[in-house]
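Q: Structure tokens for this one, please.
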Amino acid sequence: MPSSVLKPEALLRPTPRGLWCEPGDFYIDPPRPVDRAVITHGHADHARAGHGSVLATPETLAIMGERYGQDFAGRTQGLACGETAEINGVSVRFAPAGHVLGSAQAVLSHRGLSVVASGDYKRRRDPTCALFEPVPCDVFITEATFGLPVFRHPPDAGEIGHLLKSVTQFPDRAHLVGAYALGKAQRVIRLLREAGYDETIYVHGALERLNRLYEHYGVDLGPLAPATGSKADFAGKIVVAPPSAIADRWSRRFPDPVTAFASGWMRVRARARQRGVELPLILSDHADWDELTDTLTELRPDQVWITHGRDDALCRWAELNGLNARALHLVGYEDEDDEDMSSEADG
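A: Here is the predicted structure, written as tokens:
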């Protein structure tokens, strides 16, 4: 990096209030209310209510409005991926992150320096959101939720195949699939449709508004119905619900249910056994180890900053591969199902 170019910490640096862009006077995904926030996606560990102003993709703004009410911020500005906004002389644009509907990387440019804050991301195709777009940059800020070599997520189609095989094998049992309400539930439903499952899928009431929002943005979820009725109604059926509901008395209304859980953490079989999950489905909305390292290999930025997750292993890998890496140790971001299957975000 030429000496005349702005140093990265002069453009963006970690503070107790989050990643702060000093020249632009805004924060990226701040954990507490601030005057001006740039939000990468709608999961609640990144998107809080109460900011003075919010810049985000139109889809993320719609998600925040659905979850927090339309007055969730003093002012809002929608910025579609590929468009550019100027904030106090700092150029900001969004590029798809592939995490959930509306998720985006924040691309900052100022005085010859480019920084990309990825938020949360994955590299594989997801039928419910735009594919991750690699953006060349001087500094790449990455998550490391699954930043250990043990985490290599299998193909989605195979995991959905396990679910459909179980439905065929146990036609008298309901199949309860625990899936986080924003992103994972809609992805599971859409993957089932792509696998040829065209029957009605029953959904917990907590999913209904976000399902409608996804369909508003063009994601066809097929025939859905509320998961209400008698036990006999659900024999051989698939029911999708938040993970907390699967572990709750709510699940007792279903006939001898097969309990499934869709999460990257299901790679760790001890977690599945501990939570009483009969059918683990390894489906993650985060990059696995290979996706993380492939992304860094592809971009080869001057610096890699790691916001949260398993940062030690990824830092070490980066150093061994000639990259300058550091862990930011930001607070306020969950490791997504690490502490509780009912946590706000999902693996």
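A few notes: The radius of gyration is 20 Å. Residues 61 and 78 are 7 Å apart (CA to CA).
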